[in-house]
């Protein structure tokens, strides 16, 4: 019998793992069962049982909002830059909105520390391979990935450099100064703009920088609510300020992103 090699490595010993249909097992016998949705949990046992990353509320809000196409222009622009026929890691993939799109023309791996997010992503996209894993200790072998996608997710520069092939690419998406500013104006007495970005990264050279800016009209209260709940602002806002959104029936909101494409230096 020929065993199928997994793209993931064992998080315990770092050795090669094999896909045994219902589990992943490494050469030293460490085994990780697949959930019914098809993903595998590669967080080490001492990290399990704790709540990591986005919770169910944030995941369901993001799915409801993104599925209406409000970020479609961003997703398409990233796809244009990414191209096709790459082995891609979507690092901090969330509920899989972007992953599912890129998986149509690339081989996709998706990791996120949130089990709720990975469960949603695995249900959405059957063409990608998903694992619950930490971005600080990515269970992928050295110099094996063509491209890493990092969309509004934590940076892990050392790990990114480790797993990227020579001249591999890192594509990041970050919010610009006025991103969601009207939402902040509706909530806070003194709204703040996002701080300026330093795009330089040690070990990488910048290949391209693309800004994507447009406005969306949220004409339904539920869309305003799901946008708010998919952001970190929801958890940092008082109940009094949260109530301000309930009186809004529509909101014109600025979406401003910068997509930075990096090349790993030799």
What is shown here, in short?
This protein is an alpha/beta fold and 266 residues long. 26% of the residues lie in helices and 31% in strands.
Keywords:
266 residues; alpha/beta; 12 strands; eight-stranded mixed beta sheet
Describe the model.
This protein has nine helices and twelve strands. With 266 residues, the chain is an alpha/beta fold. The strands form two sheets. The protein has an eight-stranded mixed β-sheet with strand order 5-8-7-6-9-10-12-11, sandwiched between helices. Strands 1-2-3-4 form a four-stranded antiparallel β-sheet, with no helix packed on it. The protein is globular. 37% of the residues are buried. The mean pLDDT is 94.
Set out the fold topology.
Layout: E1 4-9, E2 16-19, E3 23-26, E4 31-33, E5 40-41, H1 56-66, H2 72-82, E6 87-91, H3 97-102, E7 107-112, H4 115-124, E8 129-132, E9 145-151, H5 157-163, E10 164-175, H6 181-187, E11 204-218, H7 221-229, H8 233-236, H9 239-243, E12 251-264
Parallel strand pairs: 5-8, 6-7, 6-9, 7-8, 9-10
Antiparallel strand pairs: 1-2, 2-3, 3-4, 10-12, 11-12
Helix pairs in contact: 1-7
Which regions contain 5 or more consecutive residues with pLDDT less than 50?
none
**Distance between the amino and carboxyl termini:** 39 Å
Broad structural category: alpha/beta
Mean pLDDT: 94
Order of the strands making up the biggest sheet = 5-8-7-6-9-10-12-11
Largest sheet: 8 strands, mixed
């Amino acid at each position: 019998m020929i065993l199928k090699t997994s793209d993931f490595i064992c998080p315990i010993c770092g050795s090669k793992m094999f896909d045994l249909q219902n589990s992943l097992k490494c050469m030293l016998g460490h085994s990780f069962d697949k959930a019914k949705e098809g993903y595998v949990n590669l967080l080490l046992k001492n990290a399990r049982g704790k709540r990591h990353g986005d919770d169910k509320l944030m995941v369901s809000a993001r799915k409801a909002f993104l599925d209406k196409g409000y970020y479609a222009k961003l997703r398409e622009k990233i796809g244009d830059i990414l191209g096709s026929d790459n082995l891609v890691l979507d690092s901090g993939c969330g509920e899989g909105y972007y992953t599912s799109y890129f998986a149509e023309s690339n081989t996709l791996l998706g990791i996120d520390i949130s089990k709720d997010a990975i469960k949603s992503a695995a249900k959405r996209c059957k063409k990608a391979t998903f694992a619950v894993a930490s971005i600080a200790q990515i269970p992928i072998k050295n110099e094996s990935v063509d491209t890493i996608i990092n969309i509004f997710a934590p940076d892990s520069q050392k790990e990114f450099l480790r797993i990227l092939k020579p001249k591999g690419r890192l594509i990041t998406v970050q919010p610009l100064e006025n991103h969601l500013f009207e939402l902040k104006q509706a909530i806070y007495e003194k709204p703040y703009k996002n701080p300026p970005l330093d795009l330089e990264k040690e070990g990488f050279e910048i290949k391209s920088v693309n800004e994507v800016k447009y406005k969306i009209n949220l004409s339904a209260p539920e869309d305003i609510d799901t946008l708010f709940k998919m952001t970190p602002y929801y958890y940092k806002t008082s109940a009094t300020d949260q109530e301000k959104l309930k009186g809004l029936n529509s909101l014109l909101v600025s979406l401003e992103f910068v997509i930075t494409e990096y090349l790993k230096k030799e």
